[in-house]
Write a structure and sequence with these properties.
This protein is an alpha/beta fold. It contains 14 helices and 15 strands. The strands form four sheets. It has a seven-stranded mixed sheet with strand order 1-7-3-4-5-6-2, with helices on both faces. The chain is flat, with a radius of gyration of 38 Å.
Amino acid sequence: YQRRVHGDNQEEDNMRSSMLMVVLIVLLSLVCGDIKVYSPQGLVDSFERRKIRFSLATFGKVPYGTQIAGRVFYFPGENSGCSRFRRATLDAEGDPDQDFSPIVMVDRGNCSFSRKSSNVQDLGGSVSLIVDSTAGRNPEDVNMIDDGSGVNIAIPTLMISKEDGAEIKREIQRTEANNALPGARPEYVVFIIDFENNLNEDTVMLDLWYTSGEVRALDLIQSIKPYMKRFGNRLIFTPHVILRPPKRFTQNEISKNCFKPRDVTYCSETVLSTNITGSKSLELSITELCIFDIYKVINNGEKWWDYMTASYSCKNQRFDVSCISNAMASAGIDRDKIGSCTLRAEDILSPELSRIQGSGIAFNPSIVVNNRVYRGDLHPNAVFKSICSNFNNTPDACFADYDPTTDQRTEKKGSISMTTIMWICIAVVIINIVLIYFYRRHAQREIKEEMALQIGSMMSQYRAITETKERAPGSNPQSKIKFHQHFRHFTF
């Protein structure tokens, strides 16, 4: 978002930026994951005695609940990563699994973190690993913030200490020299980066931050609704609306985008996707927060989800009053209760304003899992996996064979049980035995018939020869008797 800063407020903005940075550092200190050395053995032994500390950037998409295993690449001639890699190439040699996931290491300095990671991504890297430039500094205290160009970065960015980076570089140099020797056994530096969450609980808190009436937020709510209902009471869900400070707007814009119920002015961005003003968005926000506040105790806020689904089509009518009323009726919501609640707009919006200040919420929509800003892909399946990875005891709802009608794991529809497979195998064996039996009988019969034909042919030829000899002068009359004696044991 474009920021309008006036000269009189410069000092206040600097203080607010400093506070925001502190809060972000605290949030990122809760980052999940672990870097493990897979090979070579010398590096494994070295880091077995100590942990590779790292920090995670606020940009990029983190594959929560998964692991990335890949070879570490470092290119001394292009080590800054500030320009597109020209001579560097990535290959699958040394990759530990079937999923080619190269980890590209670059040095800090000379350009923004976002630019380095963008160039690593363009090269084909799956992880951007940045080595700090200051000795003795804990990388967990470093906050890697987007410079505004990281919106298209889809890989995670990590920073490690200068000391750890130096040791890893030496090992890469050693293995490359070793691999160049004739007949040498190849060695590669390989990491396994574990993105499992470290805030495991039996109950997970999920906070959704969004701007009311914004199409991307509405689409996200529609897509994740089936997943959220699977967790029941093990998921504590709370919606929040994104509010903006009045100083972001000019005096003319305040009249369209802000609302002042009593003492405090609350503002929201103009929603271009549905062509509604910030004031209209705030009106929708108050209604939606009232619905959740009143009905949150009923099936974990199920009526809020139902209302958001019913009001989805209202985006085409710019959320007019009649469409909103029909959506409430469809979701079974008492309009009188909501009307009474909206009269307390100050009480509804004031906590939202307090929460968003210094929260680290930079995108609309945003998701917070267990008080930590989720930086992964907003695809519903990715959000679902992140939630599941936060449970200490994984609920049945996280498994693919979960049946929401029974709240239990069950066999998938159309699947074949082991008993059925066993009987099928037995039937196949029996059928094969029967087929082999009849085939052998058929083969024996064909062999006998073939032998009979051959013997019959031989007898005919022999008879013809005998008769010829008998008619010839000086023939022996006993030959016919010998012929019958020779073949009398054949029966057909």
